[in-house]
Amino acid sequence: MSKFWVITSQVYKRRVKTKSFLISLLLPLLIGAVIFALPKIVDYFGGGDEPTKIAIISENPAFSMAISADKANFKVDKKNRNPEESKKSTDNW
């Protein structure tokens, strides 16, 4: 039984030193890291610094007040009063 472990350890050490073993070990980790970081990468390169422009069509002023409070992410057009005017103004953006 001791010869089994000697042979196993020699074969393992010889296989670990090969390039294919290192590639097959590191490539899945690299792919996983890229997939995990992909949303941040897209936000960094694709995300603009301008806030999203929206028009709120609602009788309830609480909606526009809540979204207007977040000026970093949204630009609310409060001038529009009906859906047709809102559609026209958002088409021009």
From TrEMBL:
Taxonomic superkingdom: Bacteria
Keywords from the UniProt entry: Membrane, Transmembrane, Transmembrane helix
Transmembrane segments: 21-42
Protein name per UniProt: ABC transporter permease
Originating organism: Listeria cornellensis FSL F6-0969
